[in-house]
Amino acid sequence: MASSNGATKNIRKPKPWKHPQPITMSQLSKMREEFWDTAPHYGGQKEIWDALRVAAESEEALAKAIVESAGIIVSNADLTLCYDERGAKYELPKYVLSEPTNLIQDN
C-alpha cells in the first residue's frame, strides 16, 4: 500500500547517532529486546509492530517491501515515525534501527 499521497518514501537507516555512554553490542541487543517486548503495550496493532521489527532488522529494499505490504504509512524515511492505516502512531527509537557511532567491543 502507498501512503496517502500515493507514494511510499524510500526507507533509509537513521543518520549517525551517539549513545549517551559507549555501549556494547550485547547491551544494545538487550535494549532492543526490551523495546520490542514492550512496544505493543504503547498502542497500535501487534501485527504492525511485528512488521516494523522485521523491517528494522532488514536491508532497506526488503524493509520497504515489508512496510508497503503491511500498509504502514512512513512519516520519517528512517522509520522513526510511522502510522498504520487506522491512524495509530508508531515511534521507533534509533537504537532499534542502527548502531551508534560509539559502539564498543564486548569484553
From TrEMBL:
Residues 1-22 are annotated as: Disordered. InterPro entries: DC-UbP/UBTD2_N, DC-UbP/UBTD2_N_sf, UBTD1/2. Residues 9-106 form the DC-UbP/UBTD2 N-terminal domain. It comes from the Eukaryota. Pfam families: UBD. PANTHER family: UBIQUITIN DOMAIN CONTAINING 1 PROTEIN-RELATED (PTHR13609). This is DC-UbP/UBTD2 N-terminal domain-containing protein. The lineage of its organism: Eukaryota, Viridiplantae, Streptophyta, Embryophyta, Tracheophyta.
